[in-house]
Amino acid sequence: MRFTSRSFVIGTLAVSAIALAGNDMQSRPGGVGPGLGNGADGGQLPIEDQFEQTFPGGQLLKNGTHLRRVWGRQFSWGATPHESAEKFVKKWSSLWGVPFSQLCEVGVNANGDHLTQVGGVEGAGDFTMVSWSQQVRGVPVFRAGVWGMVGNEANHPLVLAGGTLKALGNFPQTIADRDLSASTIDPAVYGREALNQFNAPPEVNSPRYVVWAGVDAQTVEPKLAVEFTATGGSALDSVNYQKMLYVVDADTGAVLHQESLILHGTAQAQVNALATTGMKAAACNTTAVTGLPYVRVLFGSTTVYADATGRATFNYTGTAAQTVNPSTLTGRYFTVQDSSGTAVQSVSSQSVNDGAVGTFQYASTTSQYTRSQIDTYYHANRVRDHLLRYSPGFPGIGGGQTMVIKNGVSGNCNAFYDGNINFYPSGGGCNNTGFATVVHHEYGHHIVSSAGSGQQQYGEGFSDVMGVLLSDESQLGVGFYSSTCTSGIRNAQNTCVGTQTGSTCGTGIHSWGQVLSGCFWDLRNQLIAAYPGDTRGRLSTDPANGVADYRDILSYLATNSVLAHAGQSDIWTDITVDVLTLDDAPSQGGNNNIGDGSPNYARIATAFGNHGLTAPALSLFTITSPAAPSTIDPAGGDTIDVVITPVTGTAQTGSQKLFVRTGTSGAFTGTVMANVGGNTWRGTFPATSCNATVQYYFEVKNISGTAVNDPPTAPASVFTTKAITPGGTVTVVSEDFATTDGGFVVTGTPFSGLGGWEWAVPSGRSCNAPSTPSKCFITGKPIATGTCNDLDGGPTILTSPVYDLSGSAAAEVSFQTFYLVTGTGNTSDPLVCKVSNNGGSNWVTMLSLTSSGSWTTRTFNIADYVALTSNMMFRFEAADTGTDNTLVCGIDNFSINTISCGIEGDLDGDGNVGPSDLAVLLLDFGVCPGCAADLDGSGVVDDGDISLLLLLYTS
């Protein structure tokens, strides 16, 4: 498959306000960003074109047609991380072809967390990941979700988004009338093919309905499916033991997808072990005594858990000695079991006096089984602690969950993860696999699972990365084979280069995984020279006098990047984008805008590029500008400031230009902008016609003559404003229908007598009302049960009062529409907007809407359809008269603005500039800021204004 990246130079200009769920978006903190106008026919631009114009500098990273990441700048702001992310996702989930109504506030991660802290220290995350999963009628879409990464700073900017959402087309209608309760799941059907893979009837767990639409970048026809797990044999029987995840067709039982949940493999990590020193297998190293972290200790009948150093403290009433008894290797987070028949180690209890410390020592032994018990317990706790040091809010890890560590599993030369971690004894040419880096690798699979990702090549690669982070060594599993204590089974110091389907080191998932471990190992080497530091580092809980340590930075980037991989199982360039976004966090010295790079951009680009995970190229310059002004003065002189920041280029003198044209065709005229300090440049709009559409863009060239434009594709894409005489815009009506119906009248009777236009608060999810509760006009009578009736028959007609628009040079009508249709034959059931300029005797269609969507603002230049008169009316027609569909329509926030193009200097409004206007000016003589007579805008009506007026005389 082919990856593409749609990229735009940074800037923030746009055309006009666009509405989200009934509320205007802002172009700065508090909203999603600048918005867009509509086409001449009132329809919206394609969603990716909208994105391009709304977010200059924003980028879409796609695998074929599948969108993987949205990155490159700040995209939305809000009072909370949830508000910021929701604003973005509500509008832009359609980038994935998925309506916001299919999303619910449940993450794809193991906990289903909607809010997850990413990065940071001691619970104070650098980011909040806000996640949604996709569902239809309460049925989850398999591993489908979307998330936004929001900076934990003022205004909470969203700086990265990703998703595995699936465009389902008309599939939701195919299950509209189906009973989806769990009781209708038929074991005889869903087990028809899958369970034949087992030698004996397996144990089946957690069957549930899901929607199957593929994984990762697959595009398959959506089907109603059943997801379940099946376990055959046991962990003691390595030949017959299977634990499989299945997704099968709900009607036929055909297997659509299956995964083994037993993930064999080895890995390494840097952990100080109890008993065995170093990172190698126990057979290759000596033993030493080290505290057992978080072990359970009984003080009498009271349970206390030790700290990370193995010290348990019990506060009690009185001074009597306490009987103290540590557990048999059971702790707060892990419990050791042994399948070999060897008893799990224990120690004798002691009586410990008040104020004294009792020292307990698990027996020193040369038995491979007892050493494996200690080593696996110790290293499992160390790798868990390491993860939480750099990602304190990681889902499924930070709570009190207990994992089983199984030692002495029947077989040899392996280890695996199946929800617990399992290790084999020596034999078959291999040492006991219960040692440091193997433990880190298997727990790495648990980290991947908890983040909500599939395993496969990514699971193997990231699990190897955990070994690199903890050991700071490239070899993984040193001493795995009994013939050597100097080499391992994989090496992160490699030259593996990834393609979409495999790597130069092989197509197996372990070989593919070396691509990812190679990226992080190369990055480690890139960071060493820049950040030699000390072992405390800036992310340490004791950072006094510490400087950035390369291992801190590497661990921060690696552990937090797995959260962005939720729902995916492959390895590709979106991982590079994720790592760059994390690197650009303010806590790392960045600015949450990777379009202009990140503190370690060059190092990350080099390391990941060595292995085929190419970093996005940086711009020559970034151009950051304000939202497009809603209007400019046709007399000229209005200015606009932009910030042009060199990234990899040097600007050619005099190349910073503002290009402007009147209208929507013809040549642009460029003028050099003036530097007003630093990287800020000021452009000036020329004089133009009143009520004219004005289009413009910016340009800067490097010394070689290569141009960078804003918008990036200018002049094909441009910014647009309107030339309106100051004070020439008048709001005729602005009705939000919150407290009044605005004088609108409903006529026409639907077939059923219900479902016609009604002024009401929408109810029921299918109505998809604006987020702020308010009345609007809606079809489908709201009822107490919180559902919406279907509109049948019709038409039902909503008609406005009469408005006087005579004498206006131009007028615009704006309103919000909601349109939801399910079934077939949609084009026979449009939502139609019409305009009349003769009091309703004749009507002209402005809009015929047939595509379902969320609340959308639509703006029309009325004169494009009819002449402006004193008898203007508007009406909205909805009907279900063709194929019987489920139909809901809505109208909200109706407004009309008129535009008058007066004659400059015509102060008395008689159409001429003459002595009577001079008389008006003299009446305002003196300090008079904002007065029409202040022709030169000085704030004072004086001799200068008299001179200007005389120059404008027409009679």
Structure description:
By secondary structure, this protein is of the alpha+beta class. 16% of the residues lie in helices and 28% in strands. The strands form 12 sheets. Strands 1, 4, 5, 6, 7, 8, 9 and 10 form an 8-stranded antiparallel sheet that branches. Strands 29, 31, 32, 35, 36 and 37 form a 6-stranded mixed sheet that branches. Strands 38, 40, 41, 43, 46 and 48 form a 6-stranded antiparallel sheet that branches. Strand 31 and strand 32 form a beta hairpin. The model is unreliable at 1-43, 265-273, 534-547, 764-772 and 782-787 (pLDDT under 50).
Helix content: 10-25%
What's the total helix number?
Answer: 13
Low-confidence stretches: 1-43, 265-273, 534-547, 764-772, 782-787
Q: Beta-sheet strand percentage?
A: 25-35%
* Alpha carbon gap, first and last residue: 73 Å
Largest sheet: 8 strands, antiparallel
General shape: elongated
How large, in whole angstroms, is the Cα Rg?
34 Å
- Structural classification: alpha+beta
Number of E strands: 50
| Averaged pLDDT | 81
Q: Summed up, what is this model?
A:
With 955 residues, this protein is α+β, with helices and mostly antiparallel strands. The protein has 13 helices and 50 strands.
